[in-house]
């Protein structure tokens, strides 16, 4: 009773008016630092509060639409609806959701400890949802309708675009990649694809056309990814800050002159009136556009789920389209609201490209890791008599010649940050080049590989060699790199005095150190290799077996194989 009298006294002496005067500024402060908060207030039996975490690009439009909706005083079972809208990077929300459930999203990293898991999440791309479904299917719902669209473009400073003849041309990815690799006027940049949907979309597009380039596809794609990696930024703001601030040739020579951005980011940049505007180049085929999926998180209470559905329903139609246009975003069907103008080449960016399966996204991200992350590798090449045999599917080349092409092709793809050594083996093994940095011994390795020749009489000590190579890599294990043994062989173990398959597997299991993983990757050349036997070896330590009868596929197989090199 005492508490009730105290409450009555506070209401009668004007405390409510004073409290209101204090609360309004606090809400305003929250709008600046914590997002936007609004609610319907009159005649309600309670409050249904929705926390909405949204990608910063679309956050202003969501806030405006929510404010207009809440003026109509929506209810759920006579409870008022309150909405808290917070702009937050999609990667941070994804990490927070994964962390809450104890799930690992490959290469994403840990949550920042500040971002809260919302009731409604609007990331910039459905690719985030696909990555999460790949980790655990029930982390996010299946029904996630898109609210807006922003195509992915290649942003090029106007002077550079003019010099390249890119102002109006429709460019294929092959043309773009050739320019990135071979044109000194281009200094590319990208935001780390592991934490940025624009970067992922770019890699997916590059990977999808890689096989169309013929034999040069691997070297062209790898060269372009290396160049993008050299200009990598951790955040989009850091990348955008590196565009040229004036058209002086010296400035252009040191600034970023090509980078994948969302169409929204490019228009927002140009709206600021920079001295050097950016030109949007729309490559063909178009990368997957940002689509801002409305994601009502699983396991919401019935009232919260109902409130979320009501909110989603108001984020459609012409009025919302115009709100999107005010912030340089297209509607979810690619159409444009009032006040948003696009260049003559922009129509090609308006199509809707389906979001790929998680496997496609993971493959593209693996390509990034394969090419950009440093590794420590011992390459072991078979020179036994079995390598004299020809490979019918390789145009009459011998297995030895295929093996040399494989090793040379792999060497050309590896960046200078890697450490690589080379052994050959027949009845016994021989160190040709010790494991060391490619930056200083690439030519030595190239010469040693060129000199590999089959021993016309020697058998194959495959099992003994694999064990010796494994121990060598293990002894110099580097915690900052992936550590691996890559074996190229064209036959089966043929060494009567050597260890057996069972002994090899048992020995590997005994010396294996779980906290110092070493992958064994075996590339078999021709049909005579026994894949089942080789699989038993890699099952003991981790790794994979690949059969490569066609030398034109060697580069792809090398990069696929080394994607397994994740023991960092």
Q: Which geometry do the CA atoms define? A: globular
Q: What helical percentage do the residues reach?
A: 40-55%
Q: Which parts are unreliable, with pLDDT below 50 for 5 consecutive residues or more?
A: 1-35
Measured by DSSP, the beta-strand proportion falls in 15-25%
Please tell me the overall pLDDT. Answer: 84
What attributes does this structure have?
alpha/beta; 6-stranded mixed sheet; 42% helix; disordered N terminus
Description:
It is built from 21 helices and 21 strands. It has 568 residues and is of the alpha/beta class. Helix 19 (501-511) links the parallel strand 19 and strand 20 (519-524). Helix 5 packs across helix 15 (358-372) and helix 18 (462-475) runs parallel beside helix 19 (501-511). It is globular. The N and C termini lie far apart (65 Å). Residues 376-562 form the VWFA domain. It holds the Pfam family VWA. This is Substrate-binding domain-containing protein.
Map the helices and strands.
Elements: H1 2-12, H2 15-33, E1 36-39, E2 47-54, H3 59-70, E3 75-76, E4 79-87, H4 90-100, E5 120-122, H5 126-135, E6 148-149, E7 152-157, H6 158-164, E8 171-172, H7 173-182, E9 190-191, H8 197-209, H9 217-230, E10 232-233, H10 236-240, H11 249-254, E11 259-262, H12 263-271, E12 278-281, E13 283-284, E14 295-296, H13 302-314, H14 317-325, E15 330-331, H15 358-372, E16 375-382, H16 399-413, E17 419-425, E18 429-437, H17 438-450, H18 462-475, E19 482-489, H19 501-511, E20 519-524, H20 531-541, E21 543-547, H21 554-562
Parallel strand pairs: 2-4, 2-5, 8-13, 9-10, 16-17, 16-19, 19-20, 20-21
Antiparallel strand pairs: 1-4, 3-4, 5-14, 6-15, 7-11, 7-12, 17-18
Helix pairs in contact: 5-15, 7-9, 8-15, 16-17, 16-21, 18-19, 19-20
């Amino acid at each position: 009773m005492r508490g009730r009298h105290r409450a009555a006294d506070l209401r009668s002496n004007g405390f409510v008016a004073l409290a209101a005067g204090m609360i309004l500024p606090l809400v305003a402060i929250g709008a600046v630092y914590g997002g936007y908060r609004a609610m319907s207030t009159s005649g309600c039996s309670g409050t249904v509060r929705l926390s909405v975490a949204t990608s910063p690009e679309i956050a202003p439009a969501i806030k405006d639409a929510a404010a207009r909706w809440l003026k109509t005083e929506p209810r759920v079972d006579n409870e008022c609806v309150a909405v808290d809208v917070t702009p937050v990077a999609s990667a941070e929300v994804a990490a927070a959701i994964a962390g809450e459930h104890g799930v690992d999203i490959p290469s994403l990293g840990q949550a920042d400890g500040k971002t809260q898991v919302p009731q409604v999440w609007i990331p910039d791309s459905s690719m985030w949802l696909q990555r999460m479904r790949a980790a655990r299917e029930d982390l996010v719902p299946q029904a996630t309708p898109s609210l807006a669209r922003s195509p992915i473009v290649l942003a090029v400073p106007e002077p550079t675009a003019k010099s390249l003849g890119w102002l109006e041309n429709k460019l294929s990815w092959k043309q773009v990649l050739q320019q990135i690799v071979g044109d000194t006027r281009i200094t590319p940049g990208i935001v780390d694809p592991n934490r940025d949907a624009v970067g992922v979309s770019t890699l997916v597009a590059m990977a999808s056309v890689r096989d169309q380039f013929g034999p040069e596809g691997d070297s062209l794609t790898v060269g372009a990814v290396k160049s993008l990696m050299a200009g990598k930024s951790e955040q989009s703001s850091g990348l955008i800050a590196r565009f040229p601030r004036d058209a002086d040739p010296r400035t252009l020579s040191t600034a970023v002159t090509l980078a994948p951005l969302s169409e929204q980011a490019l228009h927002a940049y140009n709206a600021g009136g920079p001295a050097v505007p950016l030109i949007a180049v729309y490559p063909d085929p178009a990368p997957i556009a940002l689509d801002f999926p409305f994601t009502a998180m699983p396991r919401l209470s019935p009232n919260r789920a109902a409130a979320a559905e009501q909110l989603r329903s108001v984020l459609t139609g012409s009025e919302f389209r115009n709100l999107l246009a005010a912030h340089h975003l297209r509607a979810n069907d690619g159409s444009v609201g009032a006040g948003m103008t696009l260049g003559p080449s922009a129509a090609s960016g308006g199509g809707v490209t389906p979001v790929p399966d998680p496997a496609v996204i993971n493959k593209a991200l693996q390509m990034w890791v394969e090419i950009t992350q440093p590794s420590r590798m011992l390459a072991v090449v078979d020179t036994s008599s079995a390598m004299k045999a020809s490979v019918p599917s390789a145009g009459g080349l011998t297995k030895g010649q295929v093996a040399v092409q494989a090793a040379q092709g792999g060497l050309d793809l590896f960046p200078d940050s890697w450490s690589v050594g080379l052994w050959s083996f027949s009845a016994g093994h021989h160190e040709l080049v010790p494991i060391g940095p490619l930056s200083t011994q690439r030519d030595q390795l190239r010469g040693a590989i060129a000199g590999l020749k089959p021993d016309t009489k020697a058998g194959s000590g495959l099992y003994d060699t694999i064990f010796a190579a494994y121990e060598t890599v293990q002894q110099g294990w580097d915690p900052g790199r992936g550590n691996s043994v890559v074996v190229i062989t064209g036959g089966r173990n043929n060494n009567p005095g050597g260890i057996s398959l069972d002994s090899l597997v048992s020995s590997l299991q005994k010396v294996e150190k779980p906290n110092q993983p070493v992958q064994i990757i075996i590339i078999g050349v021709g049909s005579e290799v026994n894949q089942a036997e080789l699989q038993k070896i890699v099952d003991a330590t981790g790794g994979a077996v690949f059969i490569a009868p066609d030398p034109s596929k060697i580069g792809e197989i090398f990069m696929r194989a080394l994607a397994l090199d994740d023991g960092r």
